[in-house]
Amino acid sequence: MFNKQNLNFKPDDIKVFINQVTDSLDPRFLKYNDKEWFAELKCKVSYKNKPTNLTLILKVNKSKNNGYSWDVVSAKAEFLKFKPVRSDSVIQKNMKNFNDSLLLKNPEYFLSPVSHGIEFTNVDEIFLNKSKINSYIYPGSRSFELTKLLAVMAKSEIVFGQVDKIRYHLLQINDWVMVLDHFNRKDLNSGWLINQLIKIKDPEKAGYKLRQLNIPKT
């Protein structure tokens, strides 16, 4: 389960974790429709005709008709960091109008619930169907960076290239965060492995999501 080549693991933490999740009286299980797991996609894009990197954070969303999809919940990139120094009423009004336009979803446009099984090779649909972008966004609070990304996409200033790396953040287990990475090597300690095991109290996980995934606290 663990990346043996990572020497930062604390043996005592691993022992406590394994005993906790395999407790015969109170075992812990992970489910696809859990709310607290996230896919982190490191992507190559072209922004204003210049190659750059973009990180998308996705999570599973349940629709009103009980269907599931992967939705974008956050974004990170150098070109998304800039914030206006002064309060520009025109900018604020445009951002509000853009946010309001995202409230409705078109059920015909979504990322397949098994997108993780094909390594999110279909994430380009978000950029190709920019007029339906609201259908791919997780409902709720949005960071400045995600709001700006949506505006950039609406103005056709960004072109998607490819997904370079996928990482999963699993926060479902009480008092723990697991970070999974994929390792392609010849020995048995390969495939999807826990590469970080973080002992953290549940109330502190909102801070983890803000720092690591740029997901605003709600």
Summarize the structure.
This protein has helices at residues 11-21, 89-100, 124-128, 144-154, 205-213, and strands spanning 37-47, 50-62, 68-76, 158-170, 176-183, 191-199. The protein has 218 residues and is an alpha+beta fold.
What does this structure look like?
- This protein has a six-stranded antiparallel beta sheet with strand order 3-2-1-4-5-6.
- The protein has helices spanning 11-21, 89-100, 124-128, 144-154, 205-213, and strands spanning 37-47, 50-62, 68-76, 158-170, 176-183, 191-199.
- It has 218 residues and is α+β, with helices and mostly antiparallel strands.
- The model has no long low-confidence stretch (mean pLDDT 90).
- The chain is globular.
- It is 22% helix and 29% strand.
Give the SSE map:
Blueprint: H1 11-21, E1 37-47, E2 50-62, E3 68-76, H2 89-100, H3 124-128, H4 144-154, E4 158-170, E5 176-183, E6 191-199, H5 205-213
Antiparallel strand pairs: 1-2, 1-4, 2-3, 4-5, 5-6
- The coarse overall form would be globular
- The proportion of residues in beta strands is 25-35%
- Structural class from helices and strands? alpha+beta
Q: Gyration radius, to the nearest Å?
A: 19 Å
Question: What distinguishing features does this structure have?
Answer:
globular; 29% strand; 218 residues; alpha+beta; 6 strands; 6-stranded antiparallel sheet
